[in-house]
Design brief:
By secondary structure, the chain is α/β, with parallel strands linked by helices. It is built from 5 helices and 4 strands; from the N terminus they run βαβαβαβαα.
Length: 177
């Protein structure tokens, strides 16, 4: 019989959702995988994936030392099938995905909304577009860093949910720190 890992040694799976899965959710997936020391595994998907990762997202991540080789735009349908490991956490990072009817995720993960502006939707100069991607990266970095610092072993499900929602308000001008 397989021995269950103590929660402090456990690997958590996190799915970041967005509509197009070309920028915000990809950045979040990459940042989490790059900075979690293997305690967390990040994934991303979209309700209506664009089919390709935005070139500014890839350039930004590469410039910050992230591995971009396996990043791809994909449908959230890939995470509904039986042979995919169940998620522990699911975060929506865009308002559109948060307002869409989401699938029922296997394993009943903890969910929260971490919405932020879509850098891929910014029109303007190249410099303005790049600045939008940098802002998105920095906000996701702040939120994911706060998430990684949570004392998971000492929080009950209600406290955990409240903390995750508060993290999602960071940088939004609302009740986040």
């Amino acid at each position: 019989m397989k021995k269950k890992k103590p929660s402090s040694e456990r690997t958590y799976r996190v799915l970041f959702l967005c509509t197009g899965n070309s920028a915000r959710s990809i950045i979040a997936e990459s940042f989490l995988n790059h900075n979690s020391d293997g305690k967390f595994v990040g994934y991303s998907a979209g309700s209506h994936p664009r089919g390709e990762v935005h070139s500014h997202a890839l350039d930004l991540l590469l410039g910050k030392g992230h591995d971009i080789e396996n990043l791809r735009s994909k449908s959230w349908d890939e995470f509904e099938v039986e042979d995919v490991p169940s998620m522990d956490f699911v975060f929506t990072v865009c308002d559109n995905a948060a307002n869409e009817p989401c699938p029922v995720w296997p394993g009943r993960p903890v969910t929260a909304h971490w919405g932020l502006a879509d850098p891929a939707g910014v029109e303007g100069t190249e410099a303005e577009q790049l600045k939008a991607f940098e802002r998105a990266y920095e906000l996701l970095k702040e939120r994911i860093t706060a998430f990684l610092a949570l004392p998971f072993d000492s929080l009950d499900s209600v406290e955990l949910r409240e903390r995750l929602e508060k993290i999602g308000r960071r940088g939004s001008g609302t009740d986040g720190e």
